[in-house]
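## retry 2 of 3
previous attempt timed out at serialization; input unchanged, resubmitting
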Amino acid sequence: MIEEQEIIDDELTTETPQRFEHWKIEVDAGQMPVRIDKYLTDKNPYQSRNRIQQAADAGCIEVNGQAVKSNYKIRPHDVITLMLNTPKHDTSIAAENIPLDIVYEDDALMVINKKAGMVVHPGAGNFTGTLINAVAWHLKDLDTFDANDPDVGLVHRIDKDTSGLIVVAKTADAKSNLGKQFFNKTTHRSYHALVWGNFVEDEGTIEGNIARDPKNRLRMKIFPLDSEVGKTAITHYRVMQRFGYVTLVECILETGRTHQIRAHMKHIGHPLFADATYGGDEIIRGQRSSSYKAFIQNCFKACPRQALHAKTLGFIHPTTGQQIDFDSDWPVDFSTLIDKWRAYLSGTTQDTFTI
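## retry succeeded, writing output
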């Protein structure tokens, strides 16, 4: 797969004669003929078709050892490689002495309260300082755990700027068992979120397929359930407290898709507060007064990331067979943000509950 930001302008030149293989893929036997730029765009959601075309034009994409242009039509069993001027980045996971807020730990698993701003797994642009780097350090003396072994480690993920609970499996059996629970939707997960706008109802369900937004590859978009685009996603929500222009809600996931809550809330007109990716970092509801604008800016400073926290996590322990449930306190930035809105609500006399 082409990693985001891996193909950079300096690499898309032909001045350096030596090339290094960054990835290789063999086309399936039943693949129908299709342009290689479209094929690779479908295979890799993190790169735009334009960037892939640039790579092909620069001679960086080869088929069966020969450079091809973006209009080349792939055939079954073609071997496609990406060749760049720089050696491939070492993607092995190194142990790093980074503090972790460990909520629970035993021989099979760990439950961690992840802080906002921490990436959970190394990837493009974030090869160090991640949650799994910290886990590798914490478990460095455990002979049975290898952070580079895909059969152990993270069972699920949460976004970099989302705080809250996440489970890590120490053994292959634990990861397989927990993975099945997540797949079968038998785990229990709830999130607290501050979203823009007021709600007519006290609770509801959002349904819609989720896929990459074709206009912004870093964002997800909702498509009709009966479409062939994306994967089915279902989010249940309940109003916890209304602040007139924003609302504190609890979200319970029936599925676990990338950016699910963020994309679903944007889709129904309630983007998460301070969520820059989905437009929540602008003043969407409220007054035109300078004092209100100053208040919102202070709120953005208090919590400069999407206001989303993975509050609870529950599952059946893979070894004991017992149900275990965990709850996490709001982090300081989220708590401060809610306190600001509570103070704002108590200090106003106007009807801020207009939908």
